[in-house]
Amino acid sequence: MNNIFISHITQCICQPLLLVCILLILTDCVHPQTPRGPGISSCSYSCFRKSYCGFEEIAVSDIPVECTSLNYVGAFVDEYYGVGPGNSGTDYTLLDTLLRSNKDVFLYYGRELVEIWAEMFANGCAEANSLKEMKGLHTFLDQHKGIDGLILTGLQYTCYTKKEVPQFTDNFKIYLGVLKKSYPDMIIGMDLYASHIINQHTNAKFKNWLDISIIDKDIDFYAISLEYFNSCTADLINTGTTPMSGTSAYNTLDKLKDALKSSGIPKEKIYFKFITNPQSPYNNLTICQVNNEMMCAQPVNAKDWCSDTILSFNEKGKYAKDNGAGFIARYIDFEDKINNTCECENTYYAFNALLDGFNCVTSSSCNLFDNIVVIP
């Protein structure tokens, strides 16, 4: 016990309010820890803006300085426990570029389906196979130095899952133990679809999914993805596909708030991943054709797209502040940066509107962008 602490105790014994004094000592000695997560305003980077769409690349140095970290999709474990690009076919050139930035970098990592996780856990081999995976992961991390965290993917049931995976939580707990022991400094996040969390809360397909109370101490944060939250329909044109409230036919952020409360996921570990580009009702269109720049450049073609407004982005930023610890903006490199076609006050206006909302600031309106998505 150090002399300063002894001095505190001596002074306190002479005071009638001993309990108050002890609390003051604890306050002096214990400092709140910085959350192990991506920061309040993380940014997701695509790996296909140039290769797939043929667009000019957005340099990492040109993205907003307010991006507290960068995250990249993704790396997947194959059947031989090697780590590779999965179905994306990327060569990781962009990942290496991100790693040369001054930002923390998080890698979406794992398996594409819960069934593939289950195969790795089968026959009591969770620990042995996890150790095999760590060898492949070590090789990958050695080739791409500087990754600060992993966001584990493929852990939720889908509409294609035919049967429940027995003892999934217990086996996943074993996996997390091996991962944390192998990489104690690595920040570990978990990717969860918001629609899945709502389904588990309202009409669970399988009751015994992941028990958050068992695995939470090994998970530093949860990335709650709002991709694929709803399909684009006519009554979502003004709000985008992540409406705050609405009819029972849709997933809403209000329903998600209730589902998160019942899930056991701590609020201080929640980061909401918002899409920042419009969605089209036509499945044959890709983000190359459906993005904010195209919406303002070709408003006639965009009349039935579902898009947020500056105001609704503000509302969603505030939602992230009220119900979590931060947000992730999806595909920052597809924001209207190069040409500012929408003629907003700031480039990266969707990201900035989310951040303004998180900070309880009302963004300046953007007439061209907002007027396109308002039904006449």
- Strand percentage, roughly? 5-15%
Number of strands: 9
Largest sheet: 8 strands, parallel, barrel
Unreliable sequence segments? 1-33
| Average of the residue pLDDT scores | 86
General shape:
globular
Q: What's the helical proportion of residues?
A: 25-40%
N- to C-terminal distance: 72 Å
Number of helical runs? 13
Taken in chain order, the helices and strands follow as HHEEEHEHHEHEHHEHEHHEHH
Structural class: alpha/beta
* Integer-rounded radius of gyration: 23 Å
Strand order in the sheet with the most strands: 1-2-4-5-6-7-8-9
Write a structural description.
- The N terminus is likely disordered.
- This protein has 376 residues and is α/β, with parallel strands linked by helices.
- It is built from 13 helices and 9 strands.
- Strands 1-2-4-5-6-7-8-9 form an 8-stranded parallel barrel, surrounded by 5 helices.
- Helix content is 35%, strand content 13%.
Short characterization:
With 376 residues, the protein is of the alpha/beta class. The chain has helices at 3-13, 18-29, 93-99, 114-121, 126-143, 168-182, 194-203, 212-215, 253-263, 292-297, 310-323, 349-358, 367-372, and strands spanning 41-45, 69-77, 83-84, 104-110, 149-153, 187-193, 221-225, 270-274, 326-329.
